[in-house]
Amino acid sequence: MTTNRDIIKRALRKLGAVAAGAEPSAARADAGLDLLLGMYQEWVQLGVFGRLNDYRTSVDITALPGQRIYADTGLTISLPTPYSPPYNDSNTVGGWIWDYGWPRWNGQNPLVNQSLISVIQDGVERLYVYNNGAWVDFNTQDLNSNFPLSAGLENGTAAMLALRLAPEYGNDPSALVLREAQQAQVALTHRYNNPRTVEPLYSLGYPYGPYGAYY
Q1: Which of the pair, 1 or 199, is modelled with greater confidence?
Q2: Is the sign of the CA dihedral 159, 161, 163, 166 positive or negative?
Q3: CA-angle at 193, arms to 191 and 194, nearest 5°
Q4: What is the chain's Cα-based Rg?
Q5: What's residue 118's pLDDT?
Q6: Strand-pair category, 91-93 with 96-99
Q7: Domains located in the chain, CATH noted
């Protein structure tokens, strides 16, 4: 698995600050991590992972993607897990709602990469991003943590990090690095790596067959 350390090393190589196969110094790695974690937090604030809707709770609940939960002290806020029941008509199991083979999560889309949940409790905000079947806690990220985004975004993220590191090393990023960073920003913002969600015809007011198939 790619780690945050790997992203930082790749960014430094793009700037010519670290030779291929070499390890950055502890100081350089820590400085790179500060900028990388800052990028993650900035993406949250810019809405890259989607807009958050605010909810306040005084009971234990399971949060849903796209929610910012304000929880009272001592409450347990659980994170949703994917569930794969068989294809049945109007089958509701474990929070999943299946209608003619089309999955929903309590009326929302199924869990997809880069889904975001925020939990604010005792004045501390914890951010969770869904990636490849698991929730990643942004608050516990360090150099050896797995890269929290989807495969395919590693190189672009390293390019974006290289742009932020460049002033510290007095290096001008190459045209290739600039292009990689721009392409990654577009892909990340538009979530091009996620599967498209298709609405069944009956939800749009059209006739549908026994399996929700198109005619």
Answers
A1: 1
A2: negative
A3: 75
A4: 21
A5: 95
A6: antiparallel
A7: 4-79+114-189 (1.10.3230)
What gap in Å lies between CA 208 and CA 170, rounded to an integer?
Answer: 62
Closest CA to 102 of 204, 14, 181: 204
What is the structure's pLDDT at 48? 86
**Residues in CB range of 150: below 8 A, 6 or more apart:** 113, 114, 131, 132, 193, 194
End-to-end CA distance of the chain, in Å? 43
Q: pTM of the predicted model, to two decimals?
A: 0.72
DSSP 134-174: EEEEGGG--TTSBP-S-TT-HHHHHHHHHHHHHHHHT-PPP
Average pLDDT of the segment spanning 161-172? 90
Token output for 192: 């091009």
- The secondary structure of residue 79, as a DSSP letter, is P
pLDDT tens sequence across 144-156: 999 988 778 899 9
Residues 6 or more apart whose CB falls under 8 angstroms from that of 121 comprise 70, 71, 72, 73, 75, 77
Which ranges of 173-214 does DSSP label H, i.e. alpha helix? 175-190
Provide the mean pLDDT of the chain: 79
